[in-house]
Write a structure and sequence with these properties.
about 280 residues
Amino acid sequence: MTNKKNAIRTKKINDSFYIEEIKNPRLYNPMDFQFNIQPCMPSSIKIAILDSGFPIHKDFPNIKDKKSNHSIDLLNTKTDIYDNTGHATAVSGLIAGSNPSGLYGLSPNCEFFFAKILDDENKGDINSLISGLLWSLAKKVDIVIISSYSDFDSWVLRDCIKKCYSNNMCIFSSRFSNKLDHEEYPSNYEEVFKCSVGDSFYKSSDKEIKDNKFHICYKNVPFVTSYRNDKYLKFYGSSAVSAICGGVAAHIIYKMKNENKKFSVNDIYRSLVDNFISKI
């Protein structure tokens, strides 16, 4: 049994929100999610999704096979690498979908990596999360997307986050409270971009940005994405927001690399906040 202080978790998906088919294709770009960023076709950008496993869906033809070095099972149980809950599949669809007649995500031409750190109850422990971060670091990814959280701080996790940050890795983590004084980890660390939902749209103030507190809060509205058994889903919650922010960040990083600009993680975070339209 996982020690309470080591436990991480994310919310289960409500199966009643699934959709058999999409009547109209979803071709997502940053403006669909209120980012005033000119879309491009980011490639050569590496994105790691630390979640419930390897997603399987008809709209993911570009994702490399699970037998490649692009996926890993980091749970200490005899489970398989696949996503059995649909959570990682839902997160992935918003950015990795590459079917123009179905679901076309924000950044389908990126290179994707999947670490299974959550079990079939969408629960795990900090050790798996830390292992996922270190694995992402070894893969030299640009972006990490985390949908789970812990109520307790961990100096090992904190040091791991700092190491990733110092290697120019952008980390997007869901929050299940939109109040920044509420303890949730890893999103409470200043090296992490905080993603949440609430009653209204919100982004970091100038003062918060100066204090290295980068945060975007969406109104809790559904986003259509992929789900188990080649179905689709009306996806609610902060897990969708971390995927969206990570997918848009890929556009920003790609443009900066193409223009041979030097940039820091905070430059990417600041650009996301500056270009987010929080008043509609």
